[in-house]
């Protein structure tokens, strides 16, 4: 059963019980009030009859010392005639509770008569046929006789009013339930609308539409739930986009890796087959062997770099203090014999915390890439400066071909090369920057690349100070 109908059904049940109980209590309260009023009137009437009987007994001729039965009957008949307008019936009984006078229609039941006390009055409500009566009893003293006076007064109208009250209230309750159910249905539809919108959004997302969002209807708990759901949907959509991008990157990686393997292996196999199947002169033999050796070294270098990338993704570092002077001196020594480019180093002395060999690999890759991107005789600048927070900034600048803006985000991907022919001609495989990114990640740092086509590239990174947290 839907939540809408559950709420509606529970509300109808609660209202039905509330209306029914309140109606029963109300009608019964009115009935009890009317009944108590009639009982009080009946008892008052009984007292009046007692007084009237005793007064009438005093008017009996004095020649009788004791009230005769015939006088009792006469007084009873007179009292009955005086009370016709109230439709009151009488019954008079002697000392032995023998009936001396009774009105027509008075029930033959004598249970109340037997219970009348000597110094008090009593009463009961009885049903006789289809009518209800108040039956009262009281003791009367008249001329040395103890008599018992009973009255019977019709109160059927009160019971009929109670029955009518229940009937009217049932109809009113039914009408109120129908009206309130219609109103509650509208309220339930309004209250559960955010849930239906969330259900629709969930279904849309299950069908693959991750951009669908639920509309917020209010600022209450359901509105907050909608906001949280939409936030979760945003996170999921971003996660799915990242997963798709990662899958695409892996597919590109596999395709590029297969291509990078295929090209040198084809050449190696071809030249090896040439050496095996033919007898070549010394010059061709050397060229073929040299090409096999060169391509083999390129494959070896690519394998080592791939291994480095895999290792750096899984390791954490124990950072040690390093003088930046040793890093700059190492790079100057490495590129001192490079006649095609000139390396110009400028730095501020200082101490950083890093893994020296990995950081050398980063700087070596960056400088090597800058040299490959520069024209022959071009200048490559290696700069270092301190930061106020204790960090140290490294910058590698070249004035070469530059990187197109739409490819800046891709250059750190494995096997990605901006100019493939230029990179391969210089034994490049597009793994250098990918390795740099992973090494710097272990140092809690990242590459910042600024480039303009035809004007050159500046790649920088910051090694945090000693207090910086390292992952």
Question: What does this 3D model show about the protein?
Answer:
With 471 residues, this protein is α+β, with helices and mostly antiparallel strands. The protein has 3 domains: 3-163, Beta-Lactamase, CATH 3.30.450.20; 216-314, Helix Hairpins (Orthogonal Bundle); 316-463, 2-Layer Sandwich (Heat Shock Protein 90), CATH 3.30.565.10. It has 9 helices and 12 strands. The protein has helices at residues 3-58, 69-82, 156-206, 221-277, 282-312, 324-334, 356-373, 420-425, 432-442; strands at residues 88-93, 99-102, 121-128, 131-142, 145-154, 320-323, 342-347, 351-354, 379-386, 392-398, 448-452, 456-463. A 5-stranded antiparallel sheet has the order 2-1-5-4-3, with helices on one face. Strand 3 and strand 4 (131-142) form a beta hairpin. Helix 3 packs parallel to helix 4. The longest helix is centred in the middle third of the chain and has 57 residues, at 221-277. The radius of gyration is 56 Å and the shape is rod-shaped. It starts with a helix and ends in an 8-residue tail after the last strand. Mean pLDDT is 82; it is low at 418-429.
